[in-house]
Fold this protein.
Amino acid sequence: MKRGAYFKSDAEGTELILSLWLVKREDTIINYYKPNPLTIYPRENVGLLFKTDDGALTGIGLEVTVNRGFEGDTILNMTIPEYAWGDADEPEWGDENFKDILDETYANLKTSEKYNYVGLDYTVPAFVGKCLLTVSTDEEGSTPELYELTTAEGLQNTAQLGLYITDMANNPLSVNITETKQGRIHFSEIIKSLPARQDPITYTYLVQLTDALPANPNLIEATMVVRPKPVGESRFVGTNVRDYEVTHTAVIAEPISVEYVQDAGIQSSTLAVYRNNNIYGEYDVLAGSLPTGISYESGVLTFAKDFASHLTKASGATEVYRFEVTAVDNAGQDFLDSVTFTITMEPVSYEIVVPTEDIWGWKAKIEAVISGTLNATDLKVYLSDSEYPATWTGSPAEVWLEGLESGKITQYTLSIRMKFRQKSLLRNLLSR
């Protein structure tokens, strides 16, 4: 059956507002539905077609055909939502990940895996009608902030806080939340980005959601309270932090470590290195751009036992390096007492002596006075061009050279070779 009617429109177009009442005969329940208005211009014909067969998308459909003259027909398929013709269950929260967070450190809020998903799952059979977020604190003089999550402005403002909405698979919504029945409201980034404070503060997040029923919509609410632990004083704890005096090639007995003890998280940290009172380099500790032998991981800065061997050294010169570690936490506080230590590196010196009284017919003793401490692999003895087995004991180090040619005067080149220098002695060893 067709029924015609006239609709008066001006040149700029006039909105055609449709109001539908759907009646379920068996129980005489009347549901009301109001689609979005259409703009109609003069001399346009509008046809409305209800679909209750397979042509409907969800049981009942409304097809609007607008005849726009030479432009042809424009067909708009409107799905009449389920709540307008059937029963709709009340909305529900999935709030197992939307619980109060009390006395947690700011550092843990930012880094702990258990806060990777803080949020609300919603299931709304009659589609989302409105969704409001209210953020308030107990700070004196503060005013609650209200955000409408169904508007572009509200989503933009809450995105700056770190809130975002996805489907149940954590994919960003491609439609407005009002076109969804299920989804997730994520608060993780809000929690992670809370500014660290030394004074106590409580944040309250209230979410109110109504479904799209035009009459007596269902309302559900959820509240989460976050009260972080106020940050204390940030400080360093050093292990083996002291001044050192070593030779150019020496390694220290144990690594040096600097632990960052803090509640707020680390905003920045700098390692400044001075060589002979001149700046050698400044390094961003958190970025990991550190000199060879120095590393940062899990809140600990470590200087390896051989880190000094990688530093620049002038041959034969004494080098004094000073290291200073400073840091600022996320509350804007400087760490208590910067860490400072020096390492003084002396060049290795040695003297070779062959006492005349210790030259024998087939052997001779040499003595080497060596500064500092050397590893066995740092020093080798050569007689002429052949490496000579020797064991160094004490200072002066002594070694007997055996297997000399006896019965005549013979010239030998004796050398001690180290990783950093070589010194040779040319002697006539007289066999006796």
